[in-house]
Amino acid sequence: MNEQLLTVFLATYTFIFIGCGSLYIEKRSEITFVGVSLAWGAVVAANIYTFGHISGAQINPAVTFAYAVVGQFPWKQVPLYVLGELLGSTTASLTLKWIFDGENTEAMLTQPVGPNPASDLKVAVLEIIITFIYVMTNCSSRADPRAFKELGGVAVGATVFFLALVAGKITGASMNPARSLGPAIAAWNFNKIWIYIISSVIGAVSATMLYFFHLMPPKSNDNSKIEGIPIFDIRAMNQVFTNNSVDISVVSNKLGEKSLEMEFPRRLESI
């Protein structure tokens, strides 16, 4: 548990430090808005591959809460994970404030953007939509046993990149209470913070409920299968392969199929 909480803190710290740091650099006209969006997407993908195998790379209290709602995360761990996420976000925001000497701390905030900002209702609806899409991608590419999970980080990171492009100049593209609350604490500016907290929770819970209750295949009596699709560990399958041959009976057992007693060479000569 200690290492999980530590990685939750580190993942969220890295997420905010890179993402909000890019906003400071944008203010200096050294990168473009596209570069900022890419920074957010890239750091999300990097966190998944760096911390996903330890803590699930959780950086979002709304997602943590939503997974608990659908029974995919223990409720007793929710307060600790949320605390780690908020501490990571706040610490990173304070670090950036110190590095940039308190320069324009409002650059980190998520607020309605522009000289004629969108109404609170439009901001809330857009935040619900983009959070829904982000969490749906996370469920589909990382939680579903049918998914090709090696590319889960790429899928989620790319989704964050595109959503930031669409909504960044309208709402700030939060999708995450920790993303909004940590910088707000550092800048001590809580203007419209409630919109981003409530909207992200609604979007995350809606996406997880839809996916796990309607799109995730039901488990069969055999825990190794889901709706007839065998789930197996690639590393275990690799152990089947020997220097000279492959035992098909072992492979077929891994797949839950009828055993076939035969062998064939691992390498086939080209014809």
TrEMBL record:
Lineage: superkingdom: Eukaryota
Cellular-component GO terms for this entry: membrane
UniProt-listed InterPro entries: Aquaporin-like, Aquaporin_transptr, MIP, MIP_CS
Pfam families to which the protein is assigned, alphabetical: MIP
A molecular-function term among this protein's GO annotations: channel activity
Keyword Membrane: yes
Topological category with respect to the lipid bilayer: Multi-pass membrane protein
Keyword field: Membrane, Transmembrane, Transmembrane helix, Transport
Gene3D superfamilies: Glycerol uptake facilitator protein
SUPFAM superfamilies: Aquaporin-like
Subcellular location, record wording: Membrane
Keyword Membrane: yes
Membrane-spanning intervals of the chain: 6-25, 32-51, 121-139, 151-173, 193-213
Chief place of localization: membrane
Recorded family membership: Belongs to the MIP/aquaporin (TC 1.A.8) family.
Protein name: Uncharacterized protein
Species, as recorded: Dendrobium nobile
